[in-house]
Amino acid sequence: MPETIACTLILPGFVGSMNRLEGDHLMHQDNTDNHDHRLGGLLLESSIITQEQLDIALKQQSHCEERIGSVMLRLGYLNTETLLEFLRRHFGTPSIDLYSIHIAPSVLNSLSFEQMKKLQALPIIPSTKGLFVGMADPNNIKAVNELEFILGRKVEPLVVPHAQIDAVFRYIEKRGGRLTTTLSGEEVEKEQSEGIMPGTFELKKLITLLMEKNASDLLISAGVAPCLKLNNEVIRLPGLSLTPAEVEQSAKELMTDPQWQEFMEKGELDFGLSRPTTGRFRVNAYRQRGSISLAIRNIDENIPTLASCGLPDWIEEFVMQPQGLILITGPTGHGKSTTLAALINLINSKRKCNIITIEDPIEFLHKHKMSNINQREIGRDTASFHEGLSHIFRQAPDVIMIGEMRDPESFEIAVQAAETGHLVISTMHANSTTTAIERIIEIFPPEKQQQIRVQLAEVFLLVMNQRLIPRTNGAGRVLAFEKLANTPRIRNMIRESKTHQIRAIFQHSAAAEYQPIDISLNNLIRRGDIALEEGIKYCENPAAFREMPVKRP
Q1: Which among 501, 499, 482, 484 is positioned nearest to 539, based on CA atoms?
Q2: pLDDT at residue 71 tops 50
Q3: What's the CA gap between 160 and 69, in Å, rounded?
Q4: Per DSSP, which regions of 314-361 are E strands?
Q5: pTM score above 0.85
C-alpha cells in the first residue's frame, strides 16, 4: 500500500496492550456498548487516558451515535495519530487519516452516494489488487462482499475514524451527493471544525427569521429541517435535515463554557439569551434519541399590558390587592408568562412597593417605575425556586412573583407568604381552575393535605386558566379564559373537599366567582374572533357548547 495513504504510529508502552488484540480482528462484536467499554478499557490500561476521561467519554457516547474513539478525539483525550494506531491494532487492518488525503472524483464516484452511506464505505485509491476502501468497520464481511460485487474487483479495507467518514459523507451530501472535483481531506476537516457546510443553516439567520415572522419558537432537532412555531402550529422551513453535529455546534454557540459543562452533566438546560441586534430569547437545550435538540422562545422586548394580552379589566381589582395568592394556569405555550408580566407591569405602574421575582429564566426585563422591582434568575442569582423562596422574607418584599411553582416546598412558602401580608403571583400547569386547586393539595403528603386545603381556601384570590385560540383572520391568537375567584361560598367548598362540585354548580352561568371557559369561547365566537370549530377544540363540554346561542359572524 502506498505510504501516502498509510497513517500509523506506535507509541511506547502502547504496543504491549495492543498486541493482545492481534488475531482478534475476525471476531464480531454483537453488543456495541460492550465493544466501546472494552476499547475504552484498553486505552485506560495503556495509561493513554484517565478513568475520569473514560467515564466522561462513555457518558457522552451513550447520548450519540459516535464510536468511543471518535468521542475521545472530539474531547481532546486522544490525538488523530493515537486513534489511528489504536484502530489499526484493534482491527488488524491498515488505518488512514481521511483529513490528510485527496480522492479523485473518478474513484469516489465508483460508488453512488446512497451505496456509500448504506455500506459505510468510501472509495479512496486503486490498489495493485483492486481498490482501497475506507470503512469504520473493516471487519463487516457482508459489506465487503457487497462492495466487491458492485465494483467487480477486490476490495482492500482501510479502517478510518467514524467521525471522519461521517464528516466526509456530510460534505458530499451538501454538494448534491456527487463531486466533480477532487475531494480534499483538508477542506473537509476545515468545514467540520468551523461547523460550516455549504447550504447548511445559519443560526443567526434563523433567529432573525423567528423575529421577522413573529413566531413564538424556533425548534432545532437532528434529522429534520429547522421549524418555526407560529400560532401554535409547527411550520417546517425549507432546507436539508440537520445532523447531530450541526445541532451540537449550534448549542455550543449559544452557551457559555460553564453552561455547556452544566448541560453535559445534566443533559438539559434552561437559560436566557440576549442578542443586541435581534432581541431576547429563552432557550431550552435537551437530549433526545442520542442527540441534542433546541427550543428557542422569542421574548417580546415590549412589556405586555392587560389590553395587549386581551385580559379582562376586572382582573385589576385582584392584582391591586395587598395580599393573597393569584395563579395563572394552563398548558405550555398558551401565554402564562406573558400574562404574568402584564400583571407585574400593572403593579409596577400603579403601586409603590417592593417587587421580588424568581424566574427560570428571566423573560421580560422590567424597569423600576412606581415600584422597585428586583428580578432573580435561577442558576445565576439563586440555585433554585426553593432556595430563592427560602430567603425571600428577608428581602422585604410586598409582591412576590414566582415564574412557576413545581414542588411542595415552593407551594408551602407561597401560601405562607400570602398568609403573612404579601401578594403572591405565580403560574402552574393545569387544565382547569379547579384542577389547579386540587393539584396543589395533592402534591403534599396525606397528613398535610387538610391543613393546606384550609390555608389555600383562605389565601387564594384568583385562579385563571387560559388558552390562546387561533383567530379566524389568521392574525395571531386570542385569549380565552376560565375564572375562579374566592368568595365565602367557594372558600367553604374548598375547605370541605368539594372543589369538584364547583364546575357542576356553575356549569352554564357566569357568576361573580366562577366563569367556565365555554362562556369565554362563546363570546369570542359571537365577536367573530374565532371559528366555532376552534371553540369546540378547547371547550369543556362539546355537546352543550354546540347548543349555546351564538350569532354567527
Answers
A1: 482
A2: yes
A3: 11
A4: 324-329, 354-359
A5: no
